[in-house]
Amino acid sequence: MTGRRTIDTIDSDGRADAPTFESFFLSGVLFVLLRRWFYSIRAFLGFRVLKTAAATLAAIYTAMLFGVTGPLGAGLLAILGVDTTRWRGLKTVFARLMASVFALALASVLFQFIGFYIWVVALYILLSFPLLARSGLKDGIVSGSVVVFHLFAKGEVSFIVIWTELQLLFIGLGWATVFNLIYMPKEKKTLERLRLRTEDSFAAVFDGLSRHLRYPETVWAGEELLQAADAIEAGIEAAIRARENRFIPQDEPWLLYFRMRQEQLDSIQLMMESVAFISRKVPQADLLADLFDRLALDVKSEYYEGETERMLESLQETFPRMPLPASRDEFETRAALLQLSRELKRCLAIAKREKRRKSSSVPTVIQ
Question: Using CA atoms, how far apart are residues 20 and 305, in angstroms rounded to an integer?
């Protein structure tokens, strides 16, 4: 043989040649292309759809392999059993299994003693649905109904029919459990992106409050507040999914973080109500505006700096020494500023409780 030998070439001693640079390069390119293709499909369809399709296919082929009658029923049960998180998937599969066994037993008794009539199916629904809902097994109502309809279609109650339905249950829900436990997408990048959106929205809100305090005639829609609320709500949902995907249940730091931001958001909404009563410019408003300028920077810090709190305490100490208001309008404005400073102190106390100080060795909420 002439020319360069490939990886599949065997020398005279029966040993394979070492892989060439070209083979490594082509393998790497193929791996990258397949990886990009997989992530593109996953982004388009969604990972849960891919898992559902795989679990359904595996359940149907397994039922066919073992010669179980009606293998498509196993695929349908697999579709019902696939869920978004590991722990939620386990709870759902358990509820569906228990509810299906109960439904199968109840329907067998009804069909055996009354007969296979359509109105008996309605009687089954009237009896089973309330019992399953009150016993915490409402997630299994649909799967239980599938099993009952299979039994009704067979038109007989026998050991073989019941055993067939139990096999379909274990195969379909079993494969759903396998795919629920094998892999769940990581939420870290999503949580980091939502954290950035939340902090940017908070900073924009503080900038808007600062501008309004300096220039009361400024018109500000406050859409950043709605953006922050959406990001926090999405962050809490993603953090719950991340917690439920852990094999060992534990506190989720991201959940603590977004709940802290939710508390602060409630406080910010009260501050905006106070700012809405400020219709004229007073010296105290400029001092509070400086605090919000500082807070717009501190909100993105992992540490609790404490500088804004010290500035606020210093400002509050000056309030009693200021001259009394000269008019009712000034009185109402300064009263709103006093309420604003108290709500700002509460907002800072929330951050002080959840964040660590710069000189502290205690881990922060989010590493």
Answer: 57
Give the pLDDT of residue 86. 78
Q: Which of 312, 237, 235 has the alpha carbon at shortest distance from 271?
A: 312
Cα separation, 320 vs 64, in Å, equals 84
Residue 303 near residue 355, CB atoms below 8 Å: yes
Whole-angstrom distance, CA of residue 182 vs CA of residue 48:
12
Q: Is 345 a residue whose pLDDT tops 70?
A: yes
Half-sphere exposure in the Cβ direction for 365 (13 Å, CA): 21
The token pair at 243 is 């917690």
Crossing angle of helices 307-318/328-354, nearest 10°? 150
Residues 6+ apart with CB under 8 A from 238: 187, 190, 191, 194, 254
Backbone angles phi, psi at 357, to 5 degrees: -75, 160
DSSP character string of 42-109: HHHH-HHHHHHHHHHHHHHHHHHHTT-S-HHHHHHHHHHH--SSHHHHHHHHHHHHHHHHHHHHHHHH
Q: pLDDT of 42-86, one tens digit each?
A: 555 566 788 888 889 999 999 999 888 888 988 888 888 888 777
Q: What's the pLDDT tens digit per position in 144-173?
A: 888 999 888 888 888 898 999 999 999 999
Tokens 């406050």 identify what position?
Answer: 222
pLDDT in tens, 169-216: 999 999 988 888 886 667 788 888 999 999 999 988 888 888 888 887
359 with 306: CB under 8 angstroms?
no
pLDDT, tens digit (0-9, with 9 covering 90-100), for 23-33: 545 555 555 55
What are the two backbone dihedrals, phi and then psi, of residue 16, each rounded to the nearest 5 degrees?
A: -80, 145
Question: Residues 186, 189, 195, CA angle at the centre, nearest 5°?
Answer: 125
25: exposed, middle or buried (Cβ count in 10 Å: 0-12, 13-18, 19+): exposed
Compute and round to an integer the Cα radius of gyration of the chain: 32
SS3 357: strand
- Phi, psi dihedral angles at 10 (to 5 degrees): -110, 130
Q: Contact, 152 vs 111, CB < 8 A?
A: yes
The β-bridge relationship of strands 303-304 and 356-357 is parallel
